[in-house]
Amino acid sequence: MHIQVILRVIGLLIMIFSVALLPPIVVSLIYNDGALMAFVYALIINLVGGLVVWFPFRNHRGDLKIRDGFLVTVLFWTTLGLFGSVPFLLTTSPDLSYTDALFESMSGLTTTGATILTAIDDLPQSILFYRQWLQWLGGMGIIVLAVAIMPMLGVGGMQLYRAETPGPVKDSKLTPRIAETAKALWYIYATLTLLCAIGYWAAGMTLFDAICHSFSTVAIGGFSTHDASIGYFNSVTIEIICTVFMVISAINFGMHFYAWRTRSVWHYFKDPEARFFFFLLLSTIVLATLVLILTSTYEWSDSLRYAVFETVSIATTSGFSTSDFSVWPHFLPFLLIVTSFAGGCASSTGGGMKVIRILLILKQGFREIQRLVHPNAVIPVKVGGKAIQERVVSAVWGFFSAYLLVYVMLMIGLMATGIDQVTAWSAVAATLNNLGPGLGEVSANFASINDPAKWMLCFSMLLGRLEVFTLLVLFTPMFWQK
Amino acid sequence: MHIQVILRVIGLLIMIFSVALLPPIVVSLIYNDGALMAFVYALIINLVGGLVVWFPFRNHRGDLKIRDGFLVTVLFWTTLGLFGSVPFLLTTSPDLSYTDALFESMSGLTTTGATILTAIDDLPQSILFYRQWLQWLGGMGIIVLAVAIMPMLGVGGMQLYRAETPGPVKDSKLTPRIAETAKALWYIYATLTLLCAIGYWAAGMTLFDAICHSFSTVAIGGFSTHDASIGYFNSVTIEIICTVFMVISAINFGMHFYAWRTRSVWHYFKDPEARFFFFLLLSTIVLATLVLILTSTYEWSDSLRYAVFETVSIATTSGFSTSDFSVWPHFLPFLLIVTSFAGGCASSTGGGMKVIRILLILKQGFREIQRLVHPNAVIPVKVGGKAIQERVVSAVWGFFSAYLLVYVMLMIGLMATGIDQVTAWSAVAATLNNLGPGLGEVSANFASINDPAKWMLCFSMLLGRLEVFTLLVLFTPMFWQK
Ligand SMILES: [K+]
Ligand SMILES: [K+]
C-alpha cells in the first residue's frame, strides 16, 4: 500500500475540487441570490483542507498499483462527498443539518438523485446549479470508474471489459490508463451534455434550466431545479429529448467511443448487452402502457406518454418524473423499481447491477437447465457468440449475492429505525441502485426519514456506486496485510 | 423418455395412495364425526383413477433412466396433490371450493402448512387427522426426493450429496437406489415420529393431538388441529419438545443415519452445514430475544420463550406458532421470514433454499473478495476442508438466481390480482420456502386471498418442493427432444 502517495493524490483532488466551486460562485453573482458567501467560504475550506492533506506528502511520488486502486477509489468518493457537503452546510437557504447536507452531497456525487429538500423551486439559483453540477462531476467520475478502474480491479466480473477499453493494457500501473481513457470519454460526455442542453433550450427551457437538466440527464442523476421534476415543463418535446438522452447515457460509453471513431451506429444493435437493454425497456413500456390503459389510470395517449417516460427514467436509474408512478395500480410501482436492479449498461453513467450482469446470470441459469438435461456435456456461457471465462461468470455471481446480502442487511437496518417494509425496500433500491425516488414515505423525497436511516442510505449510495466489493474489500484484514 | 412406464408407475402410485385413505376412515369410525363417506368415496375414486391410468400400461416394464426422474418427480407431486384434494372436496364440513381443496391438499403434501381453513378446532377429527397425515406422507416423499433423487438429478448442486448417500452409486438406474435408500431413512423418520408423539403425549396432549402433531412436526409441515397451533396447549414442555424435534427434522437425515449406525452424535457438531445451521438459529434467537426485551413486547422470560419457538419454527420452515410474530416490532417479522430462505439442511424435511447452499454462496462471495486482493491466486471453495467442484458451485448459483427470478415473477403475479406488496412478498416466501404462515393478509391463514392468487401459490409450493429446476426443466423444448 502506498498510503503517502494516495494521500497526496487525495489532497490534490480536494484542491482541484475547490476549483469546481467557481461555477456556482459565478451563478450566485449573476443572480445575486444571497448564497455567494457559502460558496466562497466552501472554496477556502476545500483549498485549505486539500493543502493540509497534500502538504505533508507533497514529495511522495511513485506509481500506484492495482491494489491501491480500491483505497483511492473509496477515498475519492468519500472525501468528495464530505467536502461537497460544505456549501449545503454553510448556506442558510436551505438551512440543513449536517446529516442532510452530507446526504444531498453524496446523492449528487453518486448520481443517485435522492433529495432531502422540499420547495426546491424557491432555493437560490447557485444552490440549484450546484446540485446539478455535483451530479455532472459525479458522472465524470463514474466514467473513469466504470471504464478504466473497475475492469482493472476486476470487480464483479468487470475484467470482461479489460480488452475493450481504449489504450494499452500491458502494464499494471494505474495512472497512465486513467488519464488516457478518461480524456477520450469525457470528450464524448461533454459533447452529449452540450447536445442535450441545446435540445432542452430549443424545446423551451430557460438557458439555466437547460444547462442544469442537461447535467443531471447525461449523468443519469435525476436532480431537477423544480419540485415537479421534468413534469414541471409539461412538454412532450422535452420529455422525448430527456428520454433519448437517458437511453444514450445508459449505454456503454465504449460504444459511443466506437460510434465516434467509425461514424456508424449499427454496432448498437449488434451488441448483446445493448439489445437486451432495449428489450427490457420495450417490454416494460408495453406492459406498463397496457396496465395503465386497462385500469383506466390515464387515457391511452397519456398512458403511453407516462409509461415511456417513467419506465425509461426508472429502468435507466435516472429518477426524473413526470407523474407519481408510486401510486400507479397493481404491480407497476414494484415492477418499475425491480427494473432499476438491472439499471444501465456497464461503462455507462447508469446505476443498478448493470444489464450485462443480469444477462450473464440469466444465461448461466439457462445453462444449468441445459446441464440437467445433458449432464455430461461441456456447455460454455456465451455472449455475442463469445464464450465467457468461468472466472468472470463466478465473479458476477459473487457480485449478485453480495448485492442481495447488502440489500437485506440495509433493509433490516432501516426497519430497525422504525421504517415500514415497503419504504425500506424501495429506499434501499433507490440508493443502492443509485436510482433516486422510492415508494411509500420516500416517493417524493427523503426529508421525513430519520437521521440514522439517512446515514445508512448514504452508505448504500456509496456501496452501489462502488459496486459493493470495492468498498467491502477494505473491511477485510486480508486487504491490509503485507 | 419412457412415458408408458412412467404412467404405469404413476397409476400404481395413485392406487397405493388410496390405501392411505384407510387411516382417516378408521379415525372417522372411531369418532363417528360424519366425514366417513367423504373418505370412502375418495378411496374408491383414487382406486378407480389409479386403475384407469395403470391398466393400459400394465405390461410396460423397463428401468427408468435419470432423465425420466424429472417427469416422475413432477407427476408424483402434482398427481398426489390432485387426488389428495378429493376428500376435502367431498366433505361438507368444511365446505370447500375446488381451488381451496387443492390448495389445502398441496399445502399438506408439500409440507408447506399454509391453510385456507378457519375455525379448525370445530372440524371433524378425520379431516383434522387427514391434513396431518398428508404432511407426514409428504415428508416421506421429500426424504426420497432429497436423499435419493435430487443428488442423482444434480438439481441445484445437489450432486454434492451423491457420494454420501448410502447404497451403490455405480449404475444410472433410478429404481434400486430409491428403494434401498428410502427404506433406511423411512425407518429413522418413523422412529423420530414415534418418539415425538410419545413426548407430546407424556407432556399432556391427548393421544389424538400427540399423533397428529408428531406427524406435522417431523415432516416440518406446520399444520395443527387447533387454530392457535402449538400456542393452544400453552405448555413450555410441549414447546421444548416441539422445538427439539423441529431442529432434528431440519438436519440432514444422512447424519441421523450415521448416528444410528455408529451410535454417536459428535458428527453433528463437526458437519459444516449443521454448524452453520446452529449458528444461524442461535444468532437469530439472541437478536429476537433482545429486540423483544428492549421494546418491552414481553417480559424477559416470555421474550426468550417466544423468540426461541418462533425463530426455530420459522427458520426451519415448520410454521407452527405460539404467538403472532407478524405484529412483532421493527424488523423482526421481516427478519424471521428472511431466515426461512435458508430453511432446513439439505436432505431434511425442511424447506427453503437449504443451509448448505447459503453457506456455499457466502463462501464463494468471500472467495471473490480474496480474488480481488490476490488476482492471480487459485482459491478453491472449501466446505469442511474439502474443495467443492466448480460445477457444484455454479449449479448452486444457478439455483439461487432461478429461485429469486421465480420469486419476483410470482410476486408480480400476486400483485396483479390486487394483493399488496408486503402480503405478496410474504405469501411467496411462505409457499416457495414451504414455510406456511406469512405477514399482512396471510399472517393467520390464506382464506381471504383470491382464487387466481391461490393457484399461483399452489404452483409456488410445488416449485419450492421440487427445487425449482425439476419443474422448470419440463417447460424447455430441450427436455422433450430425442
Ligand atoms: K439517479
Ligand atoms: K412448513
UniProtKB/TrEMBL annotation, chains A, B:
<dbReference type="GO" id="GO:0005886">
    <property type="term" value="C:plasma membrane"/>
</dbReference>
<comment type="similarity">
    <text>Belongs to the TrkH potassium transport family.</text>
</comment>
<feature type="transmembrane region" description="Helical">
    <location>
        <begin position="276"/>
        <end position="298"/>
    </location>
</feature>
<keyword id="KW-0406">Ion transport</keyword>
<feature type="binding site">
    <location>
        <position position="111"/>
    </location>
    <ligand>
        <name>K(+)</name>
    </ligand>
</feature>
<keyword id="KW-0633">Potassium transport</keyword>
<keyword id="KW-0479">Metal-binding</keyword>
<feature type="binding site">
    <location>
        <position position="221"/>
    </location>
    <ligand>
        <name>K(+)</name>
    </ligand>
</feature>
<keyword id="KW-0997">Cell inner membrane</keyword>
<dbReference type="InterPro" id="IPR004772">
    <property type="entry name" value="TrkH"/>
</dbReference>
<feature type="transmembrane region" description="Helical">
    <location>
        <begin position="232"/>
        <end position="255"/>
    </location>
</feature>
<feature type="binding site">
    <location>
        <position position="220"/>
    </location>
    <ligand>
        <name>K(+)</name>
    </ligand>
</feature>
<dbReference type="GO" id="GO:0046872">
    <property type="term" value="F:metal ion binding"/>
</dbReference>
<feature type="transmembrane region" description="Helical">
    <location>
        <begin position="392"/>
        <end position="416"/>
    </location>
</feature>
<dbReference type="GO" id="GO:0015379">
    <property type="term" value="F:potassium:chloride symporter activity"/>
</dbReference>
<feature type="transmembrane region" description="Helical">
    <location>
        <begin position="462"/>
        <end position="480"/>
    </location>
</feature>
<feature type="transmembrane region" description="Helical">
    <location>
        <begin position="331"/>
        <end position="353"/>
    </location>
</feature>
<feature type="binding site">
    <location>
        <position position="317"/>
    </location>
    <ligand>
        <name>K(+)</name>
    </ligand>
</feature>
<feature type="binding site">
    <location>
        <position position="435"/>
    </location>
    <ligand>
        <name>K(+)</name>
    </ligand>
</feature>
<feature type="transmembrane region" description="Helical">
    <location>
        <begin position="37"/>
        <end position="57"/>
    </location>
</feature>
<keyword id="KW-0812">Transmembrane</keyword>
<feature type="transmembrane region" description="Helical">
    <location>
        <begin position="133"/>
        <end position="153"/>
    </location>
</feature>
<feature type="transmembrane region" description="Helical">
    <location>
        <begin position="69"/>
        <end position="90"/>
    </location>
</feature>
<keyword id="KW-0813">Transport</keyword>
<feature type="transmembrane region" description="Helical">
    <location>
        <begin position="184"/>
        <end position="203"/>
    </location>
</feature>
<keyword id="KW-0630">Potassium</keyword>
<keyword id="KW-1003">Cell membrane</keyword>
<dbReference type="Pfam" id="PF02386">
    <property type="entry name" value="TrkH"/>
</dbReference>
<feature type="binding site">
    <location>
        <position position="112"/>
    </location>
    <ligand>
        <name>K(+)</name>
    </ligand>
</feature>
<keyword id="KW-0472">Membrane</keyword>
<dbReference type="InterPro" id="IPR003445">
    <property type="entry name" value="Cat_transpt"/>
</dbReference>
<keyword id="KW-1133">Transmembrane helix</keyword>
<feature type="transmembrane region" description="Helical">
    <location>
        <begin position="12"/>
        <end position="31"/>
    </location>
</feature>
<protein>
    <recommendedName>
        <fullName>Trk system potassium uptake protein</fullName>
    </recommendedName>
</protein>
<feature type="binding site">
    <location>
        <position position="434"/>
    </location>
    <ligand>
        <name>K(+)</name>
    </ligand>
</feature>
